[in-house]
Amino acid sequence: MTIFSRNRPAGAAGTASTAAALALTALAALAGTAAPASASGPAPTPAAAALGAAPGDLTAPSASAAPSASSASSASSASSAELALPRPTGPYATGRDTLFLTDHGRTDPWVPAAGARQLLVSLHYPARPGSGGATAPYMPQEEARLMLAQRGLDDPEWPGLVAATRTHSRNDARPAPGRFPLVLLSPGFGTPRATLTGLAEELASRGYVVATADHPYESTGTELPDGRVLTCAACDEVDAQPDDAARREVLAAVSTGRAADFSFLLDRLTGPRPAWRHAGSIDAHRVGMAGHSIGGAAAASTMAVDRRVDAGVNLDGTFFDPVPARGLDRRPFLMLGTDPGHAPGAGDTSWDEGWDRLDGFKRWLTVRDSGHFTFTDTPAIGEQLGIVDPDAPLSAARSTTITRAYVTAFFDRSLRGRPARLLEGPTPAHPEVLFQRP
């Protein structure tokens, strides 16, 4: 995969363009185990090889050379400008809270010495207009630094730039009146929860409470409230495996472990003594789950063990933990992925198998010109940095519009019983979206 910077003279293919290439690698891979394939840079780790061999999970664009730190900050004219997520389109203002939860009934599966399993959760919710304090931050700077450093980008300006990406939700905002369906979100393997913020804000603006979880030791960095930063022990576990089959077993354990995380989170959000101060805003009888990459696979894993989740969405993730042979009790499921990477028979046979086993309302959609991270905040951030990936030429605007439109339509249909003509077949409004009917 080759990456080029926008508005760069043809002869400027030296350090600036390679810095831009690695910048997109940092922002588009965001995956602690995937290293860029480079003639002069480091070779991919075993985990990168495993994930590259498993279509739909973490794959990284390549960089032609490693940049110097001084050239990285000059790779884009955006280096001195504020980055911003696309504005949500729904009728509600949005608020954000953060929860730090401890599951005393379960030891952390990746670092048992750490003790009980813990979760950091962002809650986006419909809010009263004009209420709340400052706009919620995108992500901690140390998380951004680790995310970028894993890709070889060590310029000191970049972490602050990415961390300061402007969001549209306010801290301490008062909830809008009413009770709203709950959507759980899970990020890709090695990827911070912040990278699903744009989708979370959009759903909240459309009248959903959205809980996005960081799964400790499964991200390049998770900063806890006490300032400690947990790195990706699960990535190390994948790397340590002797072959692809063993690596896939570990990744299946990631998926099933996230199912346990979300069952615990549901208990804490909808149980008799909820952990969230605005839990009264949640309609516990209408719950959906979506995720990117292995987070999308975890949506099916969670539905397989927790009947409370009524509908699921997999955004371009391999089902390392297969959809159960018995199906998902006729609950609806959407598979939305890259084309041709996740088209029928294209290589990720877990989608073909999963499709056959899904026994409720289901849709298999693929998106032309998309990449693995099309369904996250990556296109919006990368494009503002002036960086493009010709192997995934779908624009940030189209990436955002398509992801928002189809995920929202699916949850509106599944959790609210609303008509969803968008899911009935191809539409001129979204010519990139293909309906697969294997």
From TrEMBL:
Source domain of life is Bacteria
Q: Tell me the first and last residues of the signal peptide.
A: 1-39
Compositionally biased residues, Low complexity = 58-81
Q: Which GO terms describe its molecular function?
A: hydrolase activity
Which Pfam families does the protein's record reference?
PAF-AH_p_II
Which keywords fit this entry according to its UniProt record?
Hydrolase, Lipid degradation, Lipid metabolism, Signal
Matching InterPro entries: AB_hydrolase_fold
Provide the residue span(s) of the region labelled Disordered: 58-100
Q: What is this protein called?
A: Alpha/beta hydrolase
The organism of origin for this protein: Streptomyces durocortorensis
